[in-house]
Amino acid sequence: MSYVDVNDARIWVEEEGEGRPDPAHNRLEEVSVPTLVVLPTHDPPEQREVGAQVARRINGAQLVEIDSDHYLTLREPELVTKLLEEYLVTASTRASSSY
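and the corresponding structure tokens:
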């Protein structure tokens, strides 16, 4: 399997005798790790729906909406960092208490 870089996106290229893997969106229900979905409120509706679907289909996923556009990591770095830190601490605490 090889990759081609097209506008900063990696796409699969089939090689003879190789099949394409299942797209990730067909396997979301298989995710079994803590998952945080961050959704900028000013993203286009189509992108917001993708994030909402991901959060609905991954068991136990947490959905957080941030008042920003698609560049939220550039516009709100402190807020995103705080959100991730809190989520990771909570997720690791839950994981360690289940042992």
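(Above: one complete record from the training split.) The helical segments are 45-57, 72-75, 77-97.
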